[in-house]
Specification:
The protein has about 450 residues and is mainly alpha-helical. Helices cover about 65% and strands about 5% of the residues. A hairpin with a 2-residue loop joins strand 3 (about 320-325) and strand 4 (about 330-335).
């Protein structure tokens, strides 16, 4: 028939859109009275995993390569042992579910749903958009005095995450900045790179107003690494522009100058004259090490740190941190984690869990950097390489000062999925394209099919 209808266009939609929906849900405000934990984005992330399973069953294809299965499945060994050693079955199951969500299931689903570099860039731009939204709210909070309490003033930028999760906006903005810088340093059109560079510069302000020292350090380390990996000439130019913007914002316009100078200065005082927050952190780090010494191989079990904290912490530990502002009343928030992911895993999962989890991250980093070297040589996918490696470097650096917890944790899970796609799929596709281009196919079709990456 001449009027035959075309197949529904819904089939042409990217399967990564459900993952974008998870990112978008983090733009919703968190109730100021709600406990820090799972939210709507976490529920949708579970649906994304289910959606991925259904797609695999319908398409009847092998879900993961052997390499990807080993790397993503490596943390399960330590988690299983630590879940058995938990103080109660409920604690073991709850902790196991959270760790599997963040480090195994959601990353695997993201890896499988990203088809090519266009899907990858779509996810990267969704990170930038979320960071822009949360950053705009944070700047408004600082300007109007409606943010979280900081030194007696409600000026700390926390976005929609509220005073109970002061690291939430800082994490989101940092991810967006890293993605924007990676996109700006790629080989896209001049217009796209200019937009990405503008976004990266704009996100510097809300990141500064978050007053998060850990996010500052992780972002500085990551952006410096991205610039060096993209080329020393670019590193010098971008560094000069960033320094000029910082001088204008802080020196010329006086944006948060007094508070920022005090906060930046406190970074160098962690040994000589630490404030109470730094003292609490050191004390909890020592408590985590003490737990590990008692159970070096298997740890004290999942969710075991809060229960055994007081038995291992010194009297220098305060009762909790004070939170107030951003729509929430004053409350004392208990310190239930060491704020160091490596020490948290070491305390609760022992050497078995730490070696398994850190081994998976190291494998992703090595594979991602190898792919980045190939991308620089071929001129294809450099932006994806810089985004993927940058997100992993940021997360591994930030884990020295933070751990999982709060509504923004689901974004960490998506981040690891983005990293896993580049390290285990995208970087290998760049090599496949190079090899297929070097050896022309006899029927003229093989070169275009070698990678399936656009």
């Amino acid at each position: 028939m001449g009027l035959a209808l075309n197949p529904p266009r819904v089939r042409e939609l990217s399967p990564v859109l459900p993952v974008v929906a998870v990112v978008a849900l983090l733009a919703l405000p968190v109730s100021p009275t709600a406990e820090s934990g799972a939210g709507p984005a976490d529920a949708v992330s579970g649906l994304v995993v289910l959606y991925c399973v259904v797609r695999l069953v319908r398409e009847r294809r092998r879900p993961l390569s052997w390499t990807a299965a080993v790397v993503l499945g490596l943390p399960v060994a330590g988690l299983a042992v630590a879940a058995v050693g938990a103080s109660s079955p409920a604690a073991g199951l709850t902790g196991l579910g959270r760790y599997l969500q963040v480090f195994v299931l959601v990353p695997a689903a993201v890896l499988l749903l990203v088809r090519d570099r266009r899907d990858f860039r779509l996810l990267a731009w969704s990170f930038v958009a979320l960071a822009g939204w949360q950053g705009a709210i944070g700047v408004h909070q600082y300007a109007t005095g409606t943010g979280a309490s900081y030194q007696g003033e409600d000026i700390r930028a926390v976005g929609t995450f509220g005073a109970a999760d002061v690291m939430g906006m800082a994490t989101v903005v940092s991810f967006g900045l890293v993605c924007a810088l990676g996109l700006a340093l790629g080989q896209a059109s001049v217009r796209q790179r200019a937009v990405a560079a503008g976004c990266a510069l704009a996100l510097l302000l809300p990141l500064a107003l978050s007053f998060s020292r850990g996010a500052w350090i992780a972002t500085a380390v990551t952006c410096s690494a991205q610039l060096v990996l993209a080329g020393l000439r670019r590193a010098l130019v971008v560094g000069a522009v960033t320094a000029a913007v910082g001088v204008v914002l802080v020196g010329g316009l006086g944006v948060g100058s007094a508070q920022l100078q005090e906060r930046i200065g406190s970074i160098t005082q962690v040994a000589d004259a630490p404030d109470q927050s730094v003292t609490d952190r050191y004390t909890m780090w020592a408590a985590a090490v003490g737990m590990w010494r008692e159970q070096p191989l298997a740890g004290v079990g999942l969710k075991g740190f809060p229960e055994q904290r007081d038995a291992h912490a010194s009297l220098a530990l305060s009762a909790g941190s004070d939170t107030e502002g951003a729509g929430a009343a004053f409350r004392r928030q208990p310190l239930l984690s060491p704020h160091n992911m490596y020490l948290l895993v070491l305390a609760e999962q022992g050497l078995t869990g730490l070696l398994a989890l850190a081994g998976a991250w190291l494998a992703l980093l090595v594979c991602g950097l190898r792919g980045l070297v190939r991308a620089r040589g071929s001129g294809r996918g450099l932006d994806c390489a810089l985004v993927g490696c940058g997100l992993l470097v940021w997360q591994l650096t930030d884990f020295v000062y933070a751990d999982i917890g709060g509504p923004s944790t689901v974004l960490t899970a998506v981040c690891f999925g983005v990293v896993a796609w580049w390290a285990l799929v995208g970087s290998g596709a760049v090599r496949a394209r190079d090899e297929s281009a070097a050896v022309p196919a006899r029927d003229g079709s093989g070169a275009a099919e070698g990678a399936g990456i656009r």
